[in-house]
Amino acid sequence: MSKVLVLYTGGTIGMIKDPESGHLGSVDFNSVYEHIPELNRLQIDITTQSFKTPVDSSEMSSNDWTRIAKVIEREYNHFDGFVILHGTDTMSFAASALSFMIQDLRKPIIFTGSQLPIGVIRTDGKENLITALEIAAAKDSNGESIIQEVAVYFEYSLYRGNRSSKVSSNQFEAFQSPNYTEIAIAGVNIEYKWGSLLRTKSDKPTFLLKASSNIALIKLFPGFDIAIYKELFTINRTKGIVIESFGSGNAPSNLDFQKHLSSFIKSGGIVLNITQCSSGEVKQGAYKTSSFFNKAGVVSGRDMTTEAAITKLMFLLGTYDDLDRVKELLSISIAGEIT
User: Fold this and answer.
1) Under the phi-then-psi rule, with left for phi > 0, alpha for psi from -120 to 50, and beta for the rest, what region is 135?
2) How many CA atoms lie less than 13 Å away from 335 in the CB half-sphere?
3) Which of 12, 88, 90, 131 is catalytic?
4) CATH topology of domain 2-207
5) HSE-up (13 A, CA, CB side) for residue 10
6) Sign of CA dihedral 196, 176, 271, 104
7) 3-class SS at 269?
8) Range(s) within the chain of domains with CATH label 3.40.50.1170
9) Active site residue 12
10) How many C-beta atoms surround the C-beta of residue 138 within 10 A?
11) Tell me: the pLDDT tens digits for 204-244?
């Protein structure tokens, strides 16, 4: 049997209602079979671990991503796959971050969670966990893991982790992958999209577990006042800025905005331009309103999600001191995050 480690970090899936008080509290995932007896019927050797204190999804930070990565690094040779139970609100951030922190994977790391607690009758958590386990345990005819990357499984769809985004707070179909196809669909059978799966030629993964928190995000809107944001362009405070621009990478021709941007980049800051549209990509220079970005040295994020752009910039600035190297790696796909 395949051996799969389930790591509970926190989130709605691990909640159960106290019959006396009616309040939700964290379940002990070491007794997960009591709540999901169907797991006993899976031909999978399941081991469970939990954060000592579960972390709400909204409280997650880069330190928690590192904690998850360190568990996987410690246990990597002992298991065939990993399932990470995580709150849905920032799951795509965590999955994106781990795809950069753990590269050249030969085993699956599947994030999942739920919109309703595991202790609620109508919970979506049971199906999400059961199928995530099946995917994490799945092998091909050569005995190799079918999935060899960080992915998010939710409501019958498996997405590349750094291509996923949470799009709904109240629907079971809470996630989408706007610029990349699902890598598997769970119907009567689990249908894998073989041509879309990530593969590496490396024999073992690389663990790079540093991340910088000196990152800012600016979402442009009509009539925004750059004076409000000027402190963000202080190089001693901010090392990198992600800009969510209009359409295919456009911004207003605001001279103060251009001045702050140019000065920040000349001082050693890095600016990454992504579209605030739910799908599509940045094409800097296609319109006059984006040509300045090219002149100033802004890096095009092409079709990266916001979650991937932020975590990739955090990862690169925490790992490399050479700014030219950071810009080079921002421009190319290192974990399937760019088409």
Assistant:
1) alpha
2) 31
3) 12
4) Rossmann fold (3.40.50)
5) 20
6) negative
7) coil
8) 2-207
9) yes
10) 18
11) 999 999 999 999 999 999 999 999 999 999 999 999 999 99
Query: DSSP readout, 116-175?
Result: S-TTSTT-SHHHHHHHHHHHHH-B-TTS-BS--SEEEEETTEEEEGGG-EE--SSSS--E
Q: What is the DSSP letter of 15?
A: E
pLDDT digits (tens, 9 = 90+) for 98-146: 999 999 999 999 999 999 988 788 999 999 999 999 999 999 999 999 9
Other CB atoms within 10 Å distance of the CB of residue 121: 5
Do 58 and 87 meet the contact criterion of CB atoms below 8 Å apart? yes
Q: In the numeric block, which tokens belong to residue 121?
A: 């009758």
* CATH match of 215-330 with 3.40.50.40: yes
In Å, how far from its chain's centre is CA 163?
A: 7
308: its two tokens: 């991937």
What percentage of the chain's residues is helix, strand, coil (to nearest 5)? 35, 20, 45
CA atoms of 255 and 193, how far apart (whole Å): 47
User: What stretch(es) of the chain map to CATH 3.40.50.40?
Assistant: 215-330
